[in-house]
Amino acid sequence: MSTSTAAHMPGATRFDEWLLNKHWRRTTLAAPPAGSRLSAVPGDGGIPLIGHSLEALRLGLDFGLKRYETYGPVSWMRAFGVRIVGVAGGDATQVVLANKDKTFAQQGWTYFIGPFFRRGLMLLDFDEHMFHRRLMQQAFTRPRLTGYLEHVGSAAGDGVRSWQPGTFLVYPAMKRLTLDIASRVFMASELDGQQAALNKAFVDTVRAGTSMIRFAMPGGRWNAGLRGRQVLEDFFRRNVPAKRSSDSNDLFAGLCHARDDNGDSFTDDDVVNHMIFLMMAAHDTSTITTTAAAYYLGQHPEWQDRVRRECAAAGPGPLDIDALEGLRDLELVIKESLRLVAPVPSMARKTVRDTEVLGHYIPANTMVALSPWVNQMIPEFWTEPDRFDPDRFNDIRHEEKSHRYAWMPFGGGAHKCIGMHFGMLEVKTLLHQMLTRYQWSVPTDYRVRWDSTALPAPADGLPVVLERL
Ligand code: HEM
C-alpha cells in the first residue's frame, strides 16, 4: 500500500497525513450467503466510535481517493454512526445508478438530511418519486426556463455590478447572489429584509447533515438544522395561499398549479417540502460551481482572457437561453470546474434487500455512498486529473466519454438532477456578468482549501483581487 499525501488539502496538518495513511485492521462487512460465490466487502471500521467521520470531513476527496486506491471500487467503513459501503469507479457506480431491481433507495439520503429536507424530490423513492418528478418536470420545460432566465439575468446584473474592486471574497458574495436569484426565480419576489435569516436557515439545514452528534443538543449543528427547517417551513407555508391564487410565472406558482393527466396535483405540504429542497438544491450547487470556476479562471489568466473574449462577443447581456447555450468555451470551463470540484461529492443510497455490486455481497439495510468526486479524479478516466484543462471536454478529446460515469456532477439514473440545464444556464449567466465587467486574479502560489464539512466550500471564502474593466 503506498503512502498518500493530502494533495487536495493545502495546509493539511501532520495529524491529517497520519490519519490518511494509518493502516487499520482490515475486516469484512458481512459473510456472503454460503454457496453464493459472492465475496465479502473489504474495509475497516476506523477509529472506535467515530469511525472515519473525521477523515471524511477533514480530507474529503483525498480520503475518497485513498479508499479507492486501498480497497478498490467497493469497500466498507464506519462513519457518522453507521456502516457505509463506499462505491467508486465507473462500473460499480453504474450498477447502483441503473438500479435495475429497485434495490438502492434514497433512504440513504434520509439518514443524513431527512429531518431537514424531508419529502424533497431527492428523498422520495420509486413509484412515488416518479409521480412527483413527472409533476415537477412541468416547471422545467424550455419555455419555463426562458422565463426564469429573465429574473436570473436581472438579479445577476444588479448583484455583480455592485461588487467593489479590491480584495474580494468570491464565495460569500456568490452565495448571497444565488439566494437572491433563487428567490426571484422561484417566488418572483425579493425577500424584503428576510434574506439574512433565510440564508442562515439554509446554511444551518445543509450543515446539519454531516453533524457528528446526530441528535438535538443545545448549541449543536443538528439543533440549528432543525430550527432552520422550521424557519423555512413557516416562510413557505405563509406564502402558499397567495401563490395558489396567483398567476405569476415563477416556480413556486408552477408547483402550486402543476396537474398531471389524471388531474392529480401537489398538496400544500408537497409544495412546501419541494420548495425547501429546490431552494437548497439550486442555491448551494450553483454557488460552488461558480466559485470554483472563478478560482480556476483567477489561476489561469489565459483561459480567463479566452472566455472573456467569447462573452464580450455575445454582448453585455442579460443573455437569452440561445446566446447562453452558444458560450462553448465557457461551457468547457464550467464542466472542468464541476469535475475538479464536484458540488455534490457523494450521493447516498440504502439497500432495501440483499444484493451485490461487482460480485461483492451487500446485505439489506446497508448505507451506500457513491463518489462522483472520486470518479472525476481517477487516472483510469482522465489524463493528469489534477490539472485544470477544460479542453479535455472538447469535441476532439471528449475525455468525459471514457465511461458513462466518469463525469457525473449531476448524478445519473432516475434521480439525475432535474435542474441540470437550468443550473448550467444560471452559472453561465453569473460568469458572463463577471467576465464582462471585471478581471480578477489569485496569487500564483495560492491553493484553495475546500472545506468538506458540508458541500465543498472554500475555507477562506476565496479571496481574489478584483479589478473593474
Ligand atoms: C451546478 C448545479 C447543480 C449540481 C452540480 C447538481 C447536482 C445534483 C445531483 C448530483 C443530484 C443527484 C443526487 C442523487 O442522485 O442522489 C441532483 C438532484 C437534484 N437536483 Fe441538482 N444540481 C445542480 C443544480 C440544481 C438546480 C439549479 C436545481 C433546481 C432548480 C436542482 C434540483 C435538483 C433536484 C430537485 C434533484 C432531485 C432529483 C430527483 O431526485 O429526481 N439542482 N442534483
Automatic annotation (TrEMBL):
Keywords: Heme, Iron, Metal-binding, Monooxygenase, Oxidoreductase. GO terms for molecular function: heme binding; iron ion binding; monooxygenase activity; oxidoreductase activity, acting on paired donors, with incorporation or reduction of molecular oxygen. InterPro entries: Cyt_P450 (IPR001128), Cyt_P450_CS (IPR017972), Cyt_P450_E_grp-I (IPR002401), Cyt_P450_sf (IPR036396), Cytochrome_P450_monoxygenase (IPR050121). Pfam families: p450 (PF00067). It comes from the Bacteria. Its cofactor is heme. Heme binds at C417. Belongs to the cytochrome P450 family. PANTHER family: CYTOCHROME P450, CYTOCHROME P450 12A4, MITOCHONDRIAL-RELATED. This is Cytochrome P450. It comes from Actinocrispum wychmicini. The lineage of its organism: Bacteria, Bacillati, Actinomycetota, Actinomycetes, Pseudonocardiales.
